[in-house]
Design goal:
The structure is a single chain. The protein has 377 residues and is α+β, with helices and mostly antiparallel strands. The protein has 2 domains: 1-65 and 73-278, Thrombin, subunit H (Beta Barrel), CATH 2.40.10; 281-375, Roll (Pdz3 Domain). It is built from 7 helices and 23 strands. The chain has a 6-stranded antiparallel barrel. Strands 3-4-5-8-7-6 form a 6-stranded antiparallel beta barrel. Strands 17, 18, 19, 20, 21 and 22 form a 6-stranded antiparallel β-sheet that branches. It is globular.
């Protein structure tokens, strides 16, 4: 039997069919808590799903993290962090003509009712219900959406809600502990633990969107359908990402989860709150990653950086004197070793913002400062 790797959004959709290749699922779930009691409960919940898969000839396995960790090696504050975070996580039901279309999670970021989630959680819905951790239910309205980053901002009529503070996703390091919090398989307020596996991942799940930005934080914290829109937090409980997708051959967690970095989330949400839309700045270039062949051709010292393939006319890049063949290695003091890193840095800015670039031209490191960015228009 051929195996197909599937990129899925983690959302529960009653009408969803399995597709080979890239498919869209809404994230409604976050994972298997590593205790024997929770394992047994999950086993019972999954029993019908396993029987269905076996009838189709699909091999189904429970997935656990075989990490040899002694209790003393874990930070002491995971219990405190979980207690702090879960009140700020909500369940979102997207409805069409009164029927449930999909379920996902959301993160309260404003005491007065602002909630972050994924665009794919709310896309196609006509009305939305939000249930808080203390079991209160509200009708929600959409403030704005941004399909290019798969983010949406909702608003409920409420006050004095528990919120999460933003952390600095730039400061998150590979190997650092993180917690994923959401509502997988309608298991309310599920908390799972993992580490940051990689940063600036592009998995091409948003490739249908022009000017899409994929610079995901990859983690092995368990994320499943229903987790979409939920929180990825550091060990202190700061929001460092919004869970969005998994890489899987079965439709459920297999060790590869992806979250939108909080520094990008913050910019998008501020735009949606202020303007009702995202104000995107662009350099006006077509780019690709530097590989070994390109590095040899351009006599680069390392296989890193972002190659400019072409320059758009009347763009910020043309005005700044950038050229095809230049290799961008730094934006505003931050290294850009790959295309996702460059795209994320620029996507955090608004038209009219100024940036400083470092790039390699003809084997020499060159700088251009105070480049004024133009918008998509």
């Amino acid at each position: 039997m051929c195996k197909h790797t599937v990129l899925t959004f983690t959302t529960n959709n009653p009408n969803m069919k399995k597709l080979s290749g890239i498919i869209i699922l809404c994230v409604l779930t976050t994972a298997i808590v590593s205790t024997s009691i929770t394992y047994a409960l999950f086993n019972k919940l999954a029993k019908n799903s396993i029987a269905s898969n076996q009838a189709q000839g699909v091999q189904t396995k429970f997935v656990k993290n075989d990490i040899n960790i002694s209790p003393s090696s874990l930070p002491d504050d995971f219990v405190t962090t979980s207690a702090r975070v879960t009140p700020a996580i909500v369940n979102i039901v997207s409805l069409t003509n009164g029927q449930t279309r999909s379920n996902g999670s959301g993160v309260i970021v404003g005491e007065n009712g602002y909630i972050i989630t994924n665009n794919h959680v709310v896309s196609g819905g006509s009305s939305y219900e939000v249930t808080t951790n203390d079991k209160r239910t509200f009708s929600a309205t959409i403030v704005g959406v941004d399909p290019t980053t798969d983010l949406a901002l909702l608003k409920v009529d409420a006050q004095n809600l528990k919120t999460l503070d933003f952390g600095d996703s730039d400061g998150v390091r590979v190997g650092e502990w993180v917690l994923a919090v959401g509502n997988p398989f309608n298991l309310t307020s599920t908390v799972t633990l993992g580490i940051v596996s990689a940063k600036a991942r592009n998995i091409n799940i948003l490739s249908a969107q022009e000017y899409s930005v994929e610079s995901f934080i990859q983690t092995d914290a368990v994320v499943n359908p229903g987790n979409s829109g939920g929180a990825l937090v550091d060990s202190s409980g700061k929001l460092v990402g919004i869970n969005a997708a998994i890489l899987t051959e079965t439709g459920s967690y297999e060790g590869y989860s992806f979250a939108i970095p909080s520094n990008l989330v913050r910019k998008v949400i501020n735009d949606l709150k202020e303007y009702g839309e995202v104000r995107r700045a662009i350099l006006g270039i077509r780019i690709s990653d530097v590989n070994e062949t390109i590095a040899q051709q351009l006599n680069l010292d390392s296989v890193s950086g972002v190659l400019i393939d072409s320059i758009n006319k009347n763009s910020s890049a043309e005005d700044a004197g950038l050229r095809a063949g230049d290799v961008i290695v730094e934006v505003n003091g931050k290294a850009t070793n790959s295309t996702p890193e460059l795209q994320e840095q620029v996507a955090r800015l608004r038209p009219g913002s100024r940036i400083d670039l470092k790039f390699i031209r003809n084997g020499r490191l060159t700088s251009k400062n105070d480049i004024v960015l133009k918008g998509l228009d």
